Sequence to fold (200 residues):
Amino acid sequence: MRHRLTTLVPLLFAGLLAGFTFWLDRFAQGPARDVVGPSRHDPDYIVEKLTGVHMGETGAATYTLSAAKLVHYPDDDTTVLTAPKLVSYASPKAAVTVTASEGVVSSKGDHVYFQDDVRVTRAAHEGASELVMRTTFLHVVPDLHIARTDRAVTLTDDANTVTAEGFEMNSETRVIKLLSNVRGSYDPVKAPAGKPGRGG
Fold:
C-alpha cells in the first residue's frame, strides 16, 4: 500500500499546483474596483462551463481543469469552483483525476480547499488496478507541498481497502501519513486471477 500511495502523491500535486496556478492567472484576477460602503460578500464576476488545457513542450496535454462554474468574490479575493475536475497526465502510465463538489482558492492561491465528495483516482494501468482515495475535505498548501485532511479517508483498489482518520502527504519528501485508526482489508476474490490486489 505504501508503494501505491507514494506513486499517487507527485502526480496529484503536479496537477493541483499547475492547474490552479493556470486558473488563478487567467480567471482570478478581477478588474480594479473602488469599494464604497460596507463590504459585502457578493461576486464581481462569474464564469460558467469553463475548461482549460495545459500543453507540454511536445504539444501533448499535461493537465486539464474544468468546472461547472467559477465565482470570484472581491471582498476576500477568493475564487469558488463548482464541481471542479482536475486531470493530470504527468505520469505516462496513468492519469490522476481529482473531483469534488466544490473547490475554494484563497486570495493569493496559497491555500486550496476541495470540499464535499472529494475523490482522487489514479487510473488502472498494466499490472496495477485503479486506485481511489475518498474523503470529504482536502486542504492543499502549495508553498509547503502539503495536502492534508482531519476527516475520514478511504483508499481502495481492486482487492484492498484501507481506512483512517486523518491523512497528510508531502510531494517533496513523498512521505504519507495515515494519522489514526488505520485499518485495512484484503479480498482475494476481487483480485485479478493470478495477481495479488495491487494499486502499483
Notes: Residues 117 and 129 are 22 Å apart (CA to CA). Residues 2-19, 196-200 have pLDDT under 50 and may be disordered. The radius of gyration is 18 Å. The helical segments are 2-27.
